[in-house]
Structures are given as C-alpha cells and as structure tokens.
Amino acid sequence: MASTLSGKTALVTGSSRGIGRATALGLAREGALVAVHYGRDQQAAQQTVDLIKKDGGRAFAVGAQLGAPGAIDQLFHQLEAGLREHTGKTVLNVLVNNAAATTPTGGAPEEMSAEQMDEIFAVNAKAPFLLVQRALGLIPDGGRIINISSAVTRRAVPSQVVYAMSKGALDQLTLHFARHLAPRQITVNSVLPGITDNGGAVFQIPEAREQMARLSAFKRLGEPEEVAHVVVFLATDRARWITGASLDATGGSLLG
C-alpha cells in the first residue's frame, strides 16, 4: 500500500457512495485512517468501510444528518471516539466536505420553496462552516481542508440556482479560510466536479447519459475515482503550495 498519507487521519463527509466513497477509498489507499461519514444510510457507509478494510486500509463509520440540530456535536463525538480508539489521539489531518443536498432536476427556480432553500443551505454551506470551525481544534499545523464544490458555480443551470448559490458560498469559505489558516500552513481548496456517474437512477437512462456526456470535452461522463484522485492529491504534501484554489475536475465541461 502507498504511504503518502501514512500516519494521517481523514474525515470525508457523505462518503457512503459516489465521489465521497471513492475519496475515502483513495485516502485509505494512501495510508490514511478514514472516518466514513453518512447521513441516513448506515449500511452503505459500512460497505465503504468494508471495502477499505478489504483493500488493506483502516476506516470507521460516523453518522449524523448534517443540517439537523445537534448534528455537528453528534458527528464529532463519534469522530473523536473513533480517532482515540484507533490512534490513541484526537488528531484530524484531513477534512473533506463532500456531503451535499441537491435540488430536484428539471424544476424551475420559481418552484423552489423557502423550506427547500433552507435545507440546501444548511447542508451545503452552514454545515461545512461549522465542521471547519469545530475541526480546527483537532487539525494540526500543515493540515488539509478540501471542499467539494460544483461546476454549476461557473455555468448557468437555472434549475440548479439554489444548489449553485450554496456551493458558491462553499467556495467563499475556501477563499477566506485559506487566508486565515495560512499562518498554520493549513491549505484550503475547492474541487469542482462536473457531471459524475454516482450510480443514481438518471445514470441508468441511456438517453440521459448521452445528453450529459456531451457537456464534457471528452464526450463522456466523469467517474467518481477521477474526481477522488484530485482530492487525494490535494490531501498530500505534494499540494502544499496550493491554497485558496478552485480546481476544475469537470473533464473540460467549462471550456465552452
């Protein structure tokens, strides 16, 4: 097993499937102990943990429904207990804010309710801020914070305006915390995925796949592992000179 992250620890929110799962697997392959977070699907999170262990890595699951009252306390109680059990310490080297609430596809902006908007911002913007704020007590100098943003912050998709607004707020978190934490050599970056096949129902429809694939310069859908490779790179010492950046991982979908 590779060892660029040997002795390091990581928390990946929303890592029961898709990009989050691929990121957790990638970090573990590099030697990190990974806390696999889930919101509702404990079984899927345990599957991620089992895949990591089968691959020779180390992981444990933590559950909390981000955006709900008390979720941050609940998550960090489990996280600190798991870190202490596996390492004897409560040190977190890498935080990946991946969990997200999405907007329904195909809906017009005027159909979005205030309650739906509140939920999306609670998960996509408020929770990452609170997670960073709380994690700073555990993250040592030289740590890594990586936020999974979205290509829709750079490309107009009217049906996704609220989701894009929330991810735009996440990019601002990246920018300002990168400056704030630079004295501690903690890097903070965003990764912007394009359309990535996460196994959802829409990706089982051939016509939809073909239409989505046209957006990429490579004329295909992205794979979770391709985005995860970018995240893992940012988590390593090789990326120590990158901070406050938004890395395009869209397969050229923003080229026009």
Written account of the structure:
The radius of gyration is 17 Å and the shape is globular. The relative contact order is 0.14. It has 256 residues and is an alpha/beta fold. Strand 4, helix 4 and strand 5 form a beta-alpha-beta unit. Helix content is 41%, strand content 14%. It has one domain (9-249): Rossmann fold.
- How is the biggest beta sheet arranged? 7 strands, parallel
Distance between the termini: 40 Å
How large is the radius of gyration? 17 Å
CATH superfamily: NAD(P)-binding Rossmann-like Domain
Number of domains: 1
Amount of helix? 40-55%
In short:
This protein is of the alpha/beta class. It contains seven helices and seven strands, in the order E-H-E-H-E-H-E-H-E-H-E-H-H-E. A seven-stranded parallel β-sheet has the order 3-2-1-4-5-6-7, with helices on both faces.
